[in-house]
Structures
1.
Amino acid sequence: MARSNMTRNDWLRFGTVIVVAVVALYLLYPFWPLNKVVKLGLDLQGGVRLVLEAEGVADMTPADQTKTIDQVITILSNRIDQYGLANAEIRRFGGERILINLPGAADPEEARRLIGQTALLEFRRVIQAGSSPLDDLVPTSIDQEVLYDRDGRPYIVERDPLLTGNALSNAVVRTSQSLQTIGQLYIALSFTQEGAEQFAKIMRQMNVNDLLAIVLDNMIYSAPRITESIKEAAQQGWRAVQDSTTITGRFDTNEAKILAIALRAGALPTAVTVVEEESVGPTLGNDSIRRGMMTIVIGFIVILIYMMVLYRVLGAVANLALVLNMLIIFGALVLFRAVLTLPGIAGIILTIGMTVDANVIIFERVKEERRQGKSPLAAVRSGFEKSLSTLLDANLTTLLTAVILLLLGTGPIRGFAITLGIGVVGSLFCALIASRLLMEKAGFANFIPVRVAEGK
């Protein structure tokens, strides 16, 4: 591209194309394997698919039902994000059901524990503690009930909790440094200021050696004794007890992590049960990737050859535009952290045809202008101007359809809409910016495969 032939707008277009291409290449490095480049959906990566049913919402008003389901979805999303399961899809599925797709999740039981944990944390006063699972304790009041610890030992506790998990600000897994329990995991709780004030008030009201049960989903995890030191700390104010409470037990690393995440994300407003469960194996995903990418590559190569045969040198312009659009599509998937699904691959294949179609429309219009005797450069400029309305009409209506599918569609439909929408935008950019720049400034206009009418 000679500098004398380049205007300021030409340099701006040239710079834009170079920046787009370089950024796309940077985002796509190291290019392969595909799962290291873009996020893959459940159908490609394998994982776990769960359908949950929220208990009790069927009897609610539509407004309360929607509010409760939305709360459950928000809390589950927070748990899954903190656990590190990427590309998760959580959405309402019918009246009281929730669909969860967890690409990459290898253990369905682990996913079930993370999601199914109600995480209702309560601090309850212990009336009587059993010494073994064989003890038969009987409440003496309707204000009392029997709960069990993880070893099956019974405890009589007050029904009304002294404090709930709403008072927490954080929960983290730590390793004990005590000589008696060194190496054992425990969960350190931190209270909000209001929660710490309430906890300090409870400590001041309880007696030394009283038991305070830490209850999670009606299971007693620990029941520590109130010590003189904790009562003295409570007398000093809320700051002294804000980070003083722990949940102990025989945790493995994953169990402790799941429990801490559930406590941080908050308790579900209602219990949920898993009504459907499906594991998608990696073999199916790998086969889908292989077949899908093979289809893309074969279609890509066939189109490249076809355009070179039909338009000869000018076909190189369409092929370069097609390569650039493929970089744009995959680069955008990485940039926006979108998930590539099997229907998404279908959208990419459709985009290959649309990218070439835009150039075909332009080329045919340019050939018509050249037949009328116009110079190559004039034919190119006139051809682009006259094909602009056709390109915009065709591509914008397709883009509108993709947006509607994205907003109203679910799962596979959304995956198709994402790649289709990105592909349409990329196709327009490649046709109207990159292709025109090559034909006007790189000399490709001189290779328009058509004879000029005699006498023109």
2.
Amino acid sequence: MRTDPVLAPPEDATGRKNMLQLIQLRWIAVVGQVVTIASVRWLFGIELPLVPMAMLLAFLVLLNIASLLRLKARASVSNGELLLALVLDVLALTGQLYLSGGATNPFISLYLLQVTLSAVLLEAWSTWVMVVMTGVCFAGLIVIFRPLELPHPHLHDLFKLHIRGTLVCFVLDAALLVVFVVRIGRNLRARDARLADMRQQAAEEDHIVRMGLLASGAAHELGTPLATLSVILNDWRRMPVLAADAELLQELDEMEAEVQRCKAIVTGVLMSAGEARGEAPVVTTVKAFLDDIVQDWRATRQVAEFAYDNAFGDDLQIVSDSALKQVICNVLDNAADASPRWISFSATREDEALVLAVRDAGQGFAPEMLANLGKPYHSTKGRLGGGLGLFLVFNVLRKLGGGVAARNRAGGGAAVTLTLPLAALALDRGSPHAG
């Protein structure tokens, strides 16, 4: 059975998603540059150094291919890698601008797109690196560039030509910023949501640890008085005065049974806390495990009608899990409190998962209860400390890699579904009990 105390959090994919956005933007830049170069050369008849420009385009294509291969080899992308990608994009843009008029080229404002992307994607210091770099490149292109050789018809319309190019660049900048900044913002919000969930999970697990320590301590403290009560009851049973009274003997038997039940509960608490030492794991099967839970639970709870359907299918050997047993009993207890007249409990198998469904005919969940399901101290019972049962159910199932779903039934009442991967209960291959 899986015993990992804490599942490793999934690797943050935000950097990977942002790198994919940069790759898409680079493909758009390549296509846009090809269209622009072709239009300037053959539509306006302006001579351009096509060979070095084509080499820069080939560099961007190779950079994209290398970036895609890098993403296949490794899932996460660091801030430094995103910074390097943007730096290379700026260098390629600077090369194209150098070959096509330098700072006089209206597409010089594409530097702002790179700075904006860095402000969204990178850490603060990296963004300032991009600001300094683009500023230096811009200043350098004022002094060092390859002038465009304009044909005679365009010599008198330089200002109009520049304004038209500026308009095209503005529209391109605006469209790309809207598309990609919105996508990147969505990636960042998803990352923040994952981090918030992880912080909430850590807080809940800390809460469970403290509750477990409290329960373990209480179980240790209760062990001694329960043992004393058991001894006293046995002594009373041997007293001649009490032994002669059949009615008193019956009551003593009932008291002894309740004491033994309390001792079994204390033992279960200690086992769940990992303090039951020297006991071999109990090997059982899914069907036997569930049948035993139902039998033990029905012996202590009175329900007018209890519909039990164990339709798991082909049986499977597992290790008996006391924590899971307590979880199932907790859900059944809640259903019995809400609906003492009728409860349904079914077990099915869906692919490699055990699905347990508990249904009742009570009043169902209130809307605020469904909204806060699984959070501590949210309960419809209105008593101090309520809501801890379902809170523990959610967290135990999450530890085992499963999940909990709750809803109100159309015909009235509530339904709680527990889904648990069978791998969480399966025997370890190296276990001596696996045979």
3.
Amino acid sequence: MQGKIVIEEHFAIPETNGVKNRVVNPYWDGLSSSLVEFESKRLGEMDACGVELAIVSLNAPAVQAIPDVKQAVDVARRANDALAEQVRKRPSRFQGFAALPMQDPEAAAKELQRCVRDFGFKGALVNGYSNTPDAKKALYYDAPEYLSFFEEMQALDVPFYLHPRDPVSTERYDGHPWLIGSAWSFAEETALHALKMMGCGLFDKYPLLQMVLGHMGERIPYDIWRLDHRLQYRHDYPAKQQMAYYLRNNVHITTSGHFRTQTLINAMLEMGSDRVMFAIDYPYEEHARGATWFDGAEISETDRVKIGRWNAAKLFRLNLA
């Protein structure tokens, strides 16, 4: 399929480009250089795989891992300025998501305003919880102090992409380090964070607010029936609607780093094909692998074109020819 749009594609600035090898493996070779490069390898792979446009975001955990608020604000601003310059050079090939210093909700709202109004960014991608000076304490966005931030996000009418990072503590993985990271703990951590946001009443207060989850929904769509089935017996569940309601009205998912047709079809059945979008997760995944899978996935051509292009165009209000 030509004209695909990908929406979880990463870049780095020197302050955030600390790729750490969990194990010695050729997979990690070249990731640092790929994160900072826009002009040849990235565009070449996009062209070869029928990708017209990438909405690019800062790598993880980046700003969210900075405990000092002033430094987080500064790094977010510099990263957004750098991305805006790349978008300015090739607006038909690259658009951007804002990096935000969520350590300070007011500063995050101001930076979001700047990025949307001055740069035309299409929303924000936030790399999970934010660190604080207390290594055991993290900031999650279901907390009441973030309500004003999400009020501004709804007013600007742009989505909030919640991207993974490792849990605050990985002690429960002791002896099994292979479960840490993208294989398992990323999704576990992100799903819990997303469920807190879905269940706390956030979307009751801001019903037009939209959240995006990568990696086929961080496993949430496949457990949503079980979740609501058990929650019906709880009197302490604070939201007004079942979780499935928010999944189908306030959440979108992407295929980033999860190239499996059976999973895609399950997600489409649970959420509807209008709420699924194509993504690669470059450079952590290869364009060719994701595009080859998606172009040949056993779904209808109508759904392929929606998922590969038009769902993203509608959600992010992209001006396409």
4.
Amino acid sequence: MRLAGTRSMGALPEAEAGRRNMWLLIQLRWIAVGGQLVTIAIVEWVMEIRLPLALLLPVPILLAVINFLSLPLLRRRVGVSNGELTAALLLDIAALAWQLQQSGGLANPFTWLFLLQVVIGATLLRPWSSWAMAGAVGIALGVLSINPVPLDLRESHRADPLALYLQGSLVCFALIAVLLVLFVTRINRNLRESDAALASIRQQAAEENHVVRMGLLASGAAHELGTPLSTLSVILGDWQRIPRIAEDPEFADDIVDMQAEVARCKAIVGGILMSAGEARGEAPRVTTMRTFLDGIVADWQAMRRPGTIHYQDRFGEDMAIVSDPALKQVIGNIIDNATEVSPAWTEITASRQQDSLVFEIADRGPGFSRGMLESFGQPYRSSKGRPGGGLGLFLLVNVARKLGGDAEARNREEGGALVRLTLPLDVIAYTGEAPR
């Protein structure tokens, strides 16, 4: 399941919605161009009703040229305004009015196509523009009543012009029905996409708000833990100097182990405070990608039995980066999860794909359930069944999103799970002189 971390999604703004609607109008205009050409061909050569082709044919050709010119412009545009949509619909109304004026005026049964323009305007445009469309249609109908070019009917058609009108009305009704179905279906699809985008940004906003609250809680806890950890370190140092403890090798080794764990806790606290922008220890520093990754892996290899963590460095040519404490912490969380469910074997792979770092952590544990994969990265969704679980993956997804990358998880065919982190290198790259 791929998480949308490449860019932040938001509810469709009016400009983006206008761009989608303009695409829809262009598609409908292609249908109108094809319909006009087919209708002209049938009337002229099948029904043998003479039409002023020199006046009618330039209109669909002009509409086709406008569509061809609009496509590259629309691809480069971020959005389309309500005024531009209004102008596009007015152009279509004017084209239809010209065609009808040259082929019978109000007596042409295809006059009902103006209703489609009114419906489209009422659906896509602002209220004032919708009324402007209705007014434009009214003006067009008034113009059609003034000196229209009558149709040159054959004798058989002149005997019963009402039958010809009814046939044309039936065709017009069928055409309007088909176009309305296409139009409404596409509008519904746009609305569903808009709703999905809105739901996504709301979910992302809720998650980011949760991250902020977690960050405040973690920062406060880190401040509170700093003092007792320092006290423990001092007490353990004093114990080491007690002769009775120093003479007991087993007890002395326990003291060393406890000091190492206290030092690790202090490092974690320092990392949390650095991520929150509060210096406690070293600030983020310039290093190299290989040094950064090797350091993370070496820390975990030192805490596990030899041979249980396998590291494959496929990154290629090294590069200077600015180390990110938050990134180091979330990678450590994922390694911790993998080694917990698969203590005998964990594989870590770092590679470079184009301009991105791809960091993969594979294990031979039970893998992810379907529900976990569907909700991957959401807080408190954990397969461990303990309160507060699932925050490691949640933080991974949000840190990746913050850095412009993404994260995904899947189950391996040979058993176990794989978590992949992809980050663009230009986000963490150091452009100055590389450290020696």
